[in-house]
Design a protein that fits this description.
Elements (H helix, E strand, L loop, with lengths): L5 H8 L6 H6 L2 H18 L13 H15 L9 E6 L2 E4 L4 E4 L2 H4 L8 H10 L6 E3 L6 H13 L5 E7 L2 H15 L5 E5 L8 H6 L14 E5 L4 H7 L1 H18 L4 E6 L13 H13 L3 E6 L11 H4 L8 E4 L6 E6 L13 E4 H16 L8 H19 L14 E4 L2 E4 L6 H14 L1 E2 L1 E4 L3 E5 L11 H15 L2
Parallel strand pairs: 3-15, 6-7, 6-8, 8-9, 9-10
Antiparallel strand pairs: 1-2, 2-3, 4-12, 5-11, 10-11, 13-14, 14-17, 16-17
Length: about 500
C-alpha cells in the first residue's frame, strides 16, 4: 500500500492543517487501522486465483438470496449474480462461492477490478468524514478536490473550465441539457445520433433512440436523429460522399427548424448502441457545421471516459477545440458535467441536495490520478495492447469455429470496438441467441453483456487497470465453452 502525504490525507476528508479534522486525517492511529484492514483484504483476495464453480452446500442459500432480491425488485435478476464482497482484480467471487472473470465490471464502473488495495485505502480514508453525503449547500473539500483533478486533465485538450457533479450519469446528462437549453433559449430541439442512449429519466429516455426503453412513456423531447458513421456504407460509397450526405441531412434539419436546435449530442463511441466507432473527419465536419449555426457541441463520455487510447474520447479524435459541454461518469465513480466559460450557467439552474459521498470523491480522484500517472494511453499503452490481445483471441476463436461466426450485414469485422470498449459478433447477431450466449458464458465463468439494436453483439468493458495480457486466453477458454452450449 502506498503511503499518502499528510496533505493528501487532509484532502480526503477536507480538513486543513491546524484543525481537528486535519489532525484526524493525519492520525497515526487511523493510518495503522487502515493498513490493518487493507492487509486483511489483500490476504483474502490472494485466495482467489482462478474460475471455479459454486461451493457444495451453498445452492439453497444462494437461491434464497436470489429470491429475496427478486421480491424487492418485482422481477428476477437478469443474471444470477450476487457478489460475496471479495474479488481479485479481474476475478470476482459470488455469494455461492463461485468465481468468474468479470469482463463487464458493472457496465464499466470497476476499471481497477475487485478489492483493489489502493482503492480500498482511498475508500477508507473517504469514509471518515463527519457526514456520509456531501451536498451543494454544505460540503467539505472532497468534491472540489475531485473536480480540480478532473478539470486539470480535461483542460489539457479542450476549453472545458468548470464542473458540476451529480450522483448518476443520467443526471449529468440532464444538467448538460439544461446548460445547453439556457444558453440557446428559446431553442428546444436537440440533435442526436441514431441508436444513441442517454439514460433512464423521462427526458433522457425520450432522447435515447430505443423503443424498448420508453414503452408507455410520453415523448417529452423534440429530437432529430442523425446517422452515426457507418463503416461498411462509407467504404462502399466513399467516406467523403458519406460525410457530404450526412452534412446535407444536418442542413435539412437546421433549415426546417431555423434557430430551434440547442445542441447536438455526440457519443464519439456509441455504448448501448453497439460500441460503434466513427472517424475524426466525420465528427469534425458535423461539429463545424454546428458551430456555424450556433448549436452547442455536447460530448457524452459517460461510458467512454478513460477506456480509449487517450483519457478522453475527444482527445482520441482530436476534437477538443469544438467541445462546449462534456459528461463523464461510471469509471470516475462521481458523475460530472463539464463546460466552457461561455456555457457557465446562471445561478439557480443547477442544484440538488446530494452531490455524492466522500468515498466516491476520494476513490474517483485516485482513479483519475492512476490513469494520469500510469502507462495506459498512447499507441503502445496498456489499453491498446489489451485491445490487440482481445482481437487476436476473437480471430482465433472464429478460425476454430467458423460456423459460429456467419457474416452479418453491416458488420465489417467480427471483432470491433476501440480500446477498452470491446465487442464481437457471433451467432449472426441474433438477439435471442446473443442473450442465450450471455447466460451460457456466465455459467462457464465469464460475466459479459450485449449491446446493439440489430445486429446484437457481445460486449466487454474489462478491468484493464489490473488485468494481465496473459489472462485473455483463459478468459476466452471460458467463452468458447459457453458458446459451445448455444452455437448451432
Amino acid at each position: 500500500m502506498s503511503a499518502m502525504t499528510d496533505s493528501a490525507k487532509q484532502a480526503a476528508v477536507g480538513g486543513c492543517s491546524g484543525t481537528v479534522g486535519g489532525s484526524l486525517a493525519s492520525s497515526g492511529v487511523i493510518d495503522g487501522a487502515i493498513r490493518t484492514i487493507v492487509s486483511e483484504v489483500s490476504s483474502r483476495r490472494a485466495m482467489i486465483t482462478d474460475v471455479r464453480g459454486p461451493i457444495d452446500g451453498l445452492k439453497e442459500e444462494y437461491a434464497a438470496l436470489m429470491a429475496r432480491a427478486a421480491a424487492v425488485r418485482g422481477r428476477g435478476l437478469l443474471y444470477p449474480y450476487i457478489g460475496s464482497g471479495i474479488g481479485h482484480g479481474a476475478l470476482v467471487e459470488l455469494a455461492d462461492g463461485s468465481v468468474k472473470w468479470d469482463m463487464i465490471c458493472g457496465i464499466g464502473v470497476h476499471f481497477f477490478g475487485h478489492s483493489d488495495p489502493l482503492l480500498v485505502e482511498a475508500s477508507l480514508r473517504g469514509s471518515i468524514g463527519d457526514t456520509l453525503k456531501q451536498g451543494n449547500l454544505q460540503s467539505s473539500m472532497e468534491p472540489h478536490a475531485f473536480s480540480e483533478v478532473l478539470l486539470a486533465e480535461a483542460g489539457k485538450g479542450s476549453g472545458l473550465r468548470h464542473a458540476y457533479l451529480s450522483t448518476s450519469g443520467c443526471m449529468a446528462n440532464e444538467n448538460a441539457l439544461k446548460v445547453c437549453f439556457q444558453k440557446h433559449a428559446p431553442a428546444r430541439r436537440v440533435l442526436a445520433f441514431k441508436d444513441c442512449f442517454m439514460g433512464r429519466s423521462l427526458m433522457m429516455a425520450s432522447i435515447g433512440d430505443s423503443h424498448e426503453g420508453r414503452v408507455g412513456l410520453p415523448i417529452v423531447a423534440d429530437v432529430d436523429y442523425m446517422p452515426f458513421y457507418d463503416e461498411v456504407l462509407a467504404e462502399r460509397m466513399g467516406p467523403a460522399r458519406f460525410i457530404d450526405l450526412s452534412l446535407m441531412h444536418l442542413e435539412q434539419y437546421v433549415h426546417r427548424y431555423p434557430g430551434q436546435h440547442a445542441c447536438f449530442i455526440f457519443e464519439l463511441v456509441q455504448g448501448e448502441g453497439g460500441f460503434n466507432t466513427g472517424r475524426r473527419e466525420y465528427f469534425k465536419a458535423l461539429m463545424e457545421s454546428c458551430k456555424s449555426h450556433g448549436i452547442a457541441v455536447w460530448d457524452d463520455e459517460i461510458q467512454t471516459f478513460g477506456r480509449l487510447p487517450r483519457m478522453f474520447a475527444y482527445e482520441h479524435y482530436n476534437l477538443g477545440e469544438y467541445v462546449d459541454v462534456l459528461c463523464v461518469g461510471k469509471m470516475t465513480q462521481v458523475c460530472a458535467t463539464l463546460f466552457t466559460e461561455a456555457y457557465n450557467p446562471r445561478p439557480g439552474l443547477l442544484s440538488g441536495t446530494f452531490v455524492g459521498e466522500g468515498v466516491s470523491f476520494e476513490v474517483g480522484r485516485r482513479v483519475i490520478e492512476r490513469l494520469r500517472d500510469g502507462d495506459y494511453y498512447g499507441e503502445n499503452g496498456r489499453i491498446e495492447r489489451h485491445h490487440a490481445a482481445f482481437r487476436r483471441e476473437v480471430k482465433s476463436l472464429a478460425s476454430r469455429h467458423p460456423g459460429w461466426f456467419p457474416e452479418v450485414a453491416g458488420v465489417a469485422d467480427v471483432a470491433a470496438g476501440v480500446g477498452g470498449m470491446m465487442r464481437f459478433t457471433p451467432l449472426g447477431g441474433k438477439k435471442e441467441k446473443i442473450q442465450a450466449a450471455c447466460k451460457a458464458i456466465f455459467e462457464a465463468g465469464v460475466v459479459l453483456f450485449y449491446c446493439g439494436h440489430g445486429p446484437y453483439h457481445l460486449r466487454m468493458l474489462p478491468p484493464l487497470g489490473v488485468m494481465k495480457e496473459e489472462d485473455w486466453p483463459r478468459v476466452f477458454a471460458c467463452i468458447e465453452a459457453g458458446l459451445a452450449k448455444v452455437a448451432p
